[in-house]
Amino acid sequence: MNADTLISVKNLSRYYGPFCAVNNISFEVKRGQVLGFLGPNGAGKTTTMQMITGTLAPTLGQVSIAGYDLLDFPLKAKAAIGYLPEQPPVYKEMRVEEYLRFCAKLHRMPRRNVAEAINRVVEQCNLGEVRRRLVGNLSKGYQQRVGIAQAIIHQPSVVILDEPTIGLDPQEMIKIRELIGDLAQDCSVILSSHILQEVQAVCNHVQIINKGELVLNDTISGLLTQIQATHLQVALHRPPDLEVLQQIDGVENVEPLQDNRFYIQYVAGNNPAERLVEKSVAGNWGLYELIPEQRNLEQIFVELTANNN
Fold first, then answer.
1. CATH for the 5-225 domain, from 3.50.50.60, 3.40.50.261, 3.30.70.120, 3.40.50.300
2. What is the pLDDT of residues 54-82, one digit of tens each?
3. How far apart are CA 132 and CA 134, in angstroms?
């Protein structure tokens, strides 16, 4: 395994009796990568994250964290993980500072380093104003920040965040995104979220799981190539025959719609819009509407998971 590969998952499967929740998935996450982990409900996403964090044993396969096999060296592997589950594991009867000190002790942090660690995560997670307040008296957003603080207090090399921005207002979400970006400079980060725009904004890799199988594993740059505009909607007062539109360079398919409108699919990187305008003027087609359509991450997600039900 490459020294920069902090998470390695090989042929991972999990069965519940005859039911296969996760089926033979493999992937790696390197230092500096933020992986957006997506999937519809029941797709196996939570099961996969539980196996990666060591809270659920796989039926088959191998997980390595920071070079340590999770089954052979569980203490060393888990010590390298910072984990925020969907429900933050906070003790509401404790004060923020008291709770973070307790978390530092759970990670066996030397006593001389605890105060410095608490100050660091309080600043990173913007908890200065509430550090001496009871966790139970904080807003949901602040409790979420406390949950993130406990996940990173021991400076893990792998950070796994399950829905980290639930309950946060837009300004808080921006701060958490910035924090995730800072963490990724030295760590591998897995971010599970149902907010697809957030994944597109924060992550540099995207992974979609459906019915226990990986259906997409790509970089954001590769994904942007997929979601670039490849369709035009055109309206013409005096349209030509379909064959004429289909013969325009770059056009792959033409689907007629109502009211002399057409849905045109074209080859990625070969947009025929300019040629379409030229031919419309020359042929007096009466072009009055030309609308590019761009796919987004949400559309790709729906397409890849459409057979989930």
1. 3.40.50.300
2. 999 999 999 999 999 999 999 999 999 99
3. 7
